[in-house]
Every structure is written in C-alpha cells, then in structure tokens.
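Still learning. Show one?

>
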Amino acid sequence: MRKPSAILGSAVFFIAAPGVVAGLAPWLLTGRYGQPLASWPLVIAGSALIAISLGVLLHAFAGFALEGLGTPAPIAPTDRLVIGGIYRHMRNPMYVAVLSIIVGQALIFASSQLAAYAAIMGAVMATFVRVYEEPVLVRQYGAEYETYRANVPGWLPRLTPWRGT
C-alpha cells in the first residue's frame, strides 16, 4: 500500500473504531456530555488521561500508516510488522489508549456506567487479541512476530524501549 492510501485508510479507521468505541458509545451510554462534571481533581485527572492517551493513539495510528504502510483495519493490514515508536514499549498501545480514554471520561463524569463499559471493552479487546490478532500475526510475520512478542509486553509498557535483535 502507498503512504497516501495508508494515511487515508488509517484516518477513516480512526473515526470508525476508536471514534465509535471511545467517543460515540460513551456518549450514547451516558448522555452526560455537557452535564455536571465530577469534582475538579477527577476532572483534571480524567482530562490528563484522555490527552495523553489521545497522543499515544495518534502516534500508534501514524506508525501503522508510515512504518507499516497499511492500516490497523484487518481488511487493509500493514505490509510490515510495526515495531517502532510506542510499539517498542508495548504491543497493544491502541487498545490501552482507547480504554484509557474511556476511563478518563468515567473520571470526568464520575460515571460507574463508563467504568463498567471500560471493563467490558477491556475483556472484549483482550479476547480479540488472544483469539484472532495474535494468531494472524504469527501466520503473517512468523519468527519476527514471535521474537517481538517474547520481548515486548502486551498491555503494560516496558520502561526501556526494545531495540530488536
């Protein structure tokens, strides 16, 4: 895939997946956007979590388009295994970022509904990674992915970036 197509495809998928899961769905679940907020410490913590997570998410999407020459969407995968940038610290930064955005909203609105939604989505994402994504990556990239998976944690970041073999 060429870079312009990868960038456009990633942008469309950004709106379709994280935009729905971390934006539209929380809004539909709570209807609380524009409603009274939690106490200011929770609002500040939630806002910081969302801002940092949005930066991680954008960085991860850029890696798919620019390094992998593809998209995160299963229908338009990357040509190369993406292991640069944030992916040197953890294998699933997009999922972690999306979940963190939902948790940030739960903090801002003091919403137990959103906290429960984050827990459910976390379980769904972890199951999807284990049952579908990892087997596909093993088939597609073989030993390269196995080495990467053995050295980079899936859900909690390494403090030092993995440098590869």
